[in-house]
Amino acid sequence: MKSFLLGLLLLPTLALAFEPLNTDDAGTVKAGGNQIEQYFFFINRSDGPQSADIITPGEEYAGNADARAFPFTYTRGLSETVEASFSTTYYNQPSGNYSRFANYVFASKWRFHEDTENRYALAIKPTIVLPASTQQQVNGLGLAALNYGVNFIASKYWDEIEVHVNASYMRAPYNTNYSIGHTADNIRTNIFLLSIAPVWSVYQNLKLALDLGATTNPPTNSQNLSYYALVAGIYSLTDSLDLGVSYMRTGMNYGETFAVQQAGASRSEVGLTWRF
After folding, report:
1. First CA to last CA across the chain, in angstroms?
2. pTM of the prediction?
C-alpha cells in the first residue's frame, strides 16, 4: 500500500518527456534534477513551402525544402512543481549564409494543481522564442521577431494509460520586410493549437502513443486550420535513459494526416532523454 501511494504522488514527476511527442505533459523534473533531450529529425516536404506544415512548438520549420536537424533541450527542476528549460535546434540541412542554430526557446512549467486521489494534474507553461536572423526567416528556420506564448496542460493517469491535453496560444510576429520560407504570403501572427495524446504502457519498459492536433494555419490566403497525426514509441533503456521514436504527418485535413492521401509534410524523429 505504501508503494502504491508513493507511486500516485510521483505520477506527474515520472510522466513521459516532451520528446518525441508534440503534446506536453503536466509532469516536471524533480527539484534539483536535470534532463537532456537530444533528438534528430528528418522532414520530408511534398508540396513546397507551407508555413503550417511542421507544428512542434519550438521546432517550427517553414522552409521550401527537406530538412535534417538536431533539436536539443535542457531542463532543470527548480522545485517539486516548477521547472525551467532552454532549447535550440541545429540544422544540418538546409544551410546557407546564416547560423545553423535556430529556435532559441526559454520556457518554464508550473504544475499548479495535482489530485493524487483522482490521478490528474494541471500545469501552465509560458514560453519565449528569441528572434531569428532575417536570413533564417527567409529560409524558414524561424521568425525574425520576438515570439511568446503560453500552454495550458492537463494530464489524467490510469494504471496502463495516460491522456494529455494541450491548449496553447503563441503570438508570432515576424519581420515583414522579408519573406518566410521563400514565400511572400502574409501570415497570421496569433497561433492557437489544441492537441490530445493518449499513451499506453504496453510492456514493462515500453510506451506507445498517438498524438493528434489542430492548429491555426499561418498563411492568410489559406484555410484557418491545419492538422497533424503522430505515432510514437518510448522505450526505457534504464531508469534514467529513454529512447524515443516518432512519425508525424501533416495536412489540411485528417485524411492527409493518415495514409489515405498524400501528406503536406512528414517528419521522422529519433533520440534520447537522459535524466540525472
Report:
1. 28
2. 0.90
- Nearest-10 Cα torsion for 52, 54, 55, 61: -90
What the block records as the C-alpha cell of 125 is: 507553461
Helices (H), the chain: 2-10, 134-138, 254-257
Give residue 116's Cα distance to chain centre: 26
CATH class of the domain defined by 2-275: mainly beta
Q: Are 168 and 188 in contact (CB under 8 A)?
A: no
Q: Which residue has the higher pLDDT, 202 or 264?
A: 202
SS3 127: strand
Query: Where are the domains positioned within the chain?
Result: 2-275
List the grid coordinates of 101.
Answer: 542554430
147-185 tens-digit pLDDT: 999 999 999 999 999 999 999 999 999 999 999 988 888
Strand partners for 250: 228, 265
Please check the confidence at residue 6 and state whether its pLDDT lies above 70.
no
Beta carbons of 267 and 244 less than 8 angstroms apart: no
